[in-house]
Amino acid sequence: MGDISCAENQLPSRRAVASAAAWVVPTIALAVAAPAQASSGPAQQPPGLNGWIQFSWPERNDSRNYVVDGRAGESHQYGAYGLWVTNTTSSSVIEDIRIVLHYLPAPSSWSPSSSSAWSNLSPIGTHTFPEGTHQSYQMTYTGPVTPADGVTNLVNDLRFTGAARVGGSAPSIYIDRYVTVDGVELAFRRRVGTNIYTPLNTNTPPNMPNTPTVPGGRRSSSAAEEFEAVGENAALG
Question: Over pLDDT 90: what percentage of the chain?
Fold first, then answer.
């Protein structure tokens, strides 16, 4: 299995992000980034579908939802918010963009897609990980693709909610990102909340570069970071 990502332009302060997210308390939220290089431009990114998606889930035995959010309200900023494909040219043929999410425990269902560019998040069977058997869901990109030199931006207006009871502990979530560029499929897997990076085929680089420092004080990290004034934890993986 493999996976995808997102990007944007103007980052809010940590306090502003905390305030905007207050309605989900008590919810754990993690923003998962694809691998990125700390000090250089797009050429340093591993080829493939990269960017940011935020994940939230109930903290304890309550009926709050899982959330998968591309944060469409943010303007694209490379290395910070949005979704993009790296190592492209203006003549690249970019196809088969899709993201696969693996959940344990799984939501009973996902809300229909309201995105202009992403399909519904649909079940595609189960996959076994060290934490147990996960239910897998796939969304495909149906939006516009305008190839560019270095980085090709994608529409990141995806948002899904799913009802779930987590049982007092964080769920196990994996995310796979797939894209085919000029006939070559690139695919890798991340475990949400960690820096674990696994290539899913021999076309994809075996080593994850250093993760970037993100403007506004948010840094890609496997450790939890508390948002100010809210008591919500955010880990960037």
Answer: 43
Question: What does the block give as tokens for 11?
Answer: 């980052």
Read off the tokens for 60: 């304890």
Please give the model's pTM, rounded to 2 decimal places.
0.73
CB distance 83 to 151 below 8 Å: no
Q: Give per-residue pLDDT as tens, 146-184.
A: 999 989 999 999 999 998 766 667 889 999 999 999 999
CB under 8 Å to 17, separation ≥6 — which residues?
218, 227, 234
> Do residues 192 and 175 lie in contact, with contact meaning Cβ atoms separated by under 8 Å?
yes
Of residues 233, 184, 208, the one with CA closest to residue 34 = 208
- The torsion angles phi and psi of 152, rounded to 5 degrees, stand at -110, 115
CB atoms within 10 A of CB 212: 22
Can you tell me which residue has the tokens 């900023």?
77
Cβ within 8 Å of residue 168, ≥6 positions away: 59, 60, 61
